[in-house]
Amino acid sequence: MGETGTRIRRHTKLSVVGAGSVGTAVAYACLLRGSADAIALYDTNAAKVRAEVLDLNHGTQFAPSCRIEGSDDIAVTAGSDLIVVTAGAKQHPGQSRLDLAAANVALARDLTPGLLSVSPEAVVVFVSNPVDIVTRAAIAASGIADGRIFGSGTVLDSGRLRYLLAHRADVAIENVHAFVVGEHGDSEVALWSGATIGGVPVKSFSVDGRPVFDPETRAELFDEVVRSAYEIIRGKGATNLAIGLSSARIVEAVLRNQRRVLAVSTLQTGRHGLQDVCLSLPTVVDARGAHTVLDVPLSPEEEAGLAASSATLREVQASLGL
């Protein structure tokens, strides 16, 4: 408390690693939302990072106050409270996220210790795909397994599902609660048993006495969730705007200590029988990172799907020596 009795708020620093389409979307979304007091952009391409920082700074008059800097020197990230890593090879049309594994795992192994050497107290969030495998590699490389390193996981997938449910039910998306869990990828699982619209279970939601979400409709909508990234990549080369916004939500949960429940990817330690694999389940996110995985009830089909998703990720981990 100062002499006037006014509490002085601690300034927060966010660093975004990677000035590609996803990294710049994360920085832009965080600038517009006022997610942090300072944003540092780090990329090995000096000309690209300088151009992106200039472009962002030219718009700061029209956004909440924020200092923006960038460099091809990792020192620009020093003193970060939170680091969002988007760097890595990007997904090409027709390529699965798991196909990216080897190159981006090597990057995570090299990059993570360097980032933590200049920001030893930072929370680190990986967005680079395949995010579950990359997050597991970063945890192994750093030895930090307490939730301070985690992945963006299926936060965006859950948002895609909620959008489709809201659109079909003709209600505001804020009144839809549903999670996608498991791998951020083709083996992910929708938790239909706990999904609700305005407190009404999705499976029994009806309009004029007719059910809106019969089994065929649910299957169709979830298939759209799984396929949507491929469709966007075919059309414009990358998914970036929605992941920028969903990452900003994660950033705010950490920097503002919000204790939000988000479907982020963490190292599993026994919940639902899952061990030594990073995947997404509803998890409390706050200033310490992602540290409390909720015991969400699962149907037998969901339990089996989650186990299969874990097995898929374990197979890739083993092939990469994780």
Provide structural commentary.
39% of the residues lie in helices and 21% in strands. The protein starts with 12 loop residues before the first strand and ends with a helix. It is α/β, with parallel strands linked by helices and 322 residues long. The radius of gyration is 20 Å and the shape is globular. The N terminus is likely disordered. Helix 1 crosses helix 7. The protein folds into two domains: 139 residues, 3-Layer(aba) Sandwich (Rossmann fold), CATH 3.40.50.720; 165 residues, Lactate dehydrogenase/glycoside hydrolase, family 4, C-terminal (L-2-Hydroxyisocaproate Dehydrogenase, Chain A, domain 2). The strands form five sheets. It has a six-stranded parallel beta sheet with strand order 3-2-1-4-5-6, with helices on both faces. It is built from eight helices and 16 strands.
Average pLDDT, rounded to a whole number, is: 94
Number of domains: 2
Coarse morphology: globular
CATH superfamily of the largest domain: Lactate dehydrogenase/glycoside hydrolase, family 4, C-terminal
Radius of gyration: 20 Å
CATH fold topology of the largest domain: L-2-Hydroxyisocaproate Dehydrogenase, Chain A, domain 2
Helix content: 25-40%
Largest beta sheet: strand ordering: 3-2-1-4-5-6
- H/E order of the elements? EHEHEEHEHEHEEEEEEEHHEEEH
Content of β-strand: 15-25%
Q: What is the rounded distance between the termini? A: 47 Å
**What are the low-pLDDT stretches, counting only 5+ consecutive residues below 50?**
1-5
Q: Report the top-level CATH class of the largest domain.
A: Alpha Beta
- Total number of beta strands: 16
Q: Note the total helix count.
A: 8
Q: Which class best fits the helix and strand makeup?
A: alpha/beta
